[in-house]
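Render this sequence as a predicted structure.
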Amino acid sequence: MTRQLVVRTLAASALLLAGAVVAVPSATAATGSTVHACISQSDRYVTNYFRQRVTVIPVGATRVVPAGQACKSFEKATSWALKGATGAKGATGTKGTTGAKGATGAKGATGATGARGATGTTGATGTTGVAGEEGPAGPEGTAGPEGPQGPVGPGGAGTGQGTNWAIDYPMQFDMDCVTGEIRLTGGDTALGMVADGRLLDVNEYHRLFEEYGYHHGGEDGLFALPDLSASTPDGLTASVCVDGWRHP
């Protein structure tokens, strides 16, 4: 059964209030009139034994009553004014006189900064100024790192202090010395090759290279003899045994 109460003795114009359908009496429908009603505060069951049926009055059901009529014990009295129909639009009145000028309004906030303008063209180059005086010399810089050692220079003819006249004595094979041996001799003839730091071809003097290698200098197929020209006593000659016998 739908929880709804219809007051059948009222006029046909209905109102919806708190889930119940009620009607406004035609006698109270005039403009500005007040409607009086009773609102059910709980569900009520009314038994009609004659018609063998039960009528349910749901909570919130509203019924319109005459002014001054008391509500039942389970109902709460209320009322509201009815709004009349909108009247016809009245004629436009005459235009009034212009009012006095109002006071000046407060100064508005400063607007946002505008976009940056385009860059102007470059101006002409000015004349060159007079050259200034030469500044003082800067402090001397620190010394740079020592450069790499240069290649061994060609050997000189002399050995020892004041001895610059010794010459090589070519020896094809000398069994009296060991290959690579250093010997001191007096006079102008060296027994072998003067120990003056000269560069020799590795392939040509391969036996001597096997003893010295690059220990005294040289690179890329050239190796150096020891340079004893500055340490040989005056009047003597330091020489290298080029092709002697070798240790087994």
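Summary. The first helix runs from residue 206 to 212. The mean pLDDT is 76.
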